[in-house]
Amino acid sequence: MYVRVQFITVGLVAIGLAVWSGPGTTKDIVVHAGTLLDGVTETLRKEVSVLIHDDRITAVQGGYISPPGAEVVDLSRATVMPGFIDVHVHISSRLPIVRRVSEIG
pTM here? Predict the structure, then answer.
């Protein structure tokens, strides 16, 4: 579990560093993700390219592509979870069943 969280953390930090290049800079970035958890679907996507333009994800394409002029961030051996802010959560832990929100303490 520790290694999985470490890969996720490395992936998020790498995307954050790649995307933040300072104000007024336009940059194209492609992240080669070994596994992508996008938070939109329940399906993990394997071996995809996440295309970023002007600090926004513009597309996710199958396979590893390298558009001309784009900076490539190789996370092909990592799990990438863009958009997650709190990376210190245990998404694979079993939690007690709570019937009402008021039961959460």
Answer: 0.60
Q: Which domains does the chain have, with CATH numbers?
A: 2-103 (2.30.40)
Burial of 33 (0-12, 13-18, 19+ CB in 10 A): buried
Determine the Cα angle at 15 with ends 52 and 18, to 5°: 75
Identify the CA nearest to 51 among candidates 24, 91, 82: 82
- The closest of 69, 68, 28 to 50, measured between CA atoms, is 28
**Does pLDDT of 83 surpass 90?**
no
pLDDT band per the 50, 70, 90 thresholds, residue 55: confident
